[in-house]
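Task card 7
Instruction: Convert sequence to structure tokens.
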Amino acid sequence: MLQLTKRTEYGLIALIHLADRGGVVVSVREIGESYPVPRRLLAEVLKDLARAGLVESQRGATGGYTLTRPADRITLGDVVAALEGAPLLTGCEGHDEHAGTACEVQPVCPIRSPLQRLREGLWRLLERTTLQSLSTPGVLLEFDGRSARIPSTLPGPALSERAPAQ
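Output:
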């Protein structure tokens, strides 16, 4: 149902790798050697993240990318907005009445308002989820002012357990 694009997945992988490296300039080649992701697409994604102000690029033989701010100040919402835009749950959210693509059910639609609230709640969750919380064991989630750490179901070591790249 809801799924991030490969571009966003690769962007998150790259951003967490940059956070791991703690301010060291990291090349696309290094990230590509650490993770089996297409380098060309990874380079495009990093350029988009640079345009969005999430990473800084440095040119030259020792060039690459660094985060523009700490991992606890970059949210999943920042990344999704930069690479995909706000998530849509229903077809009518993408319709433009002025372009002649209005939804014919909209005037009597029983799901538009509840799904709009769900979308807004999902977006708030994305805006509260930081790169730092993604890179620690379990993901910190907040609902109704309460937080919970959900055990990670992803294979592999947590950020703090990974060996630094050489």
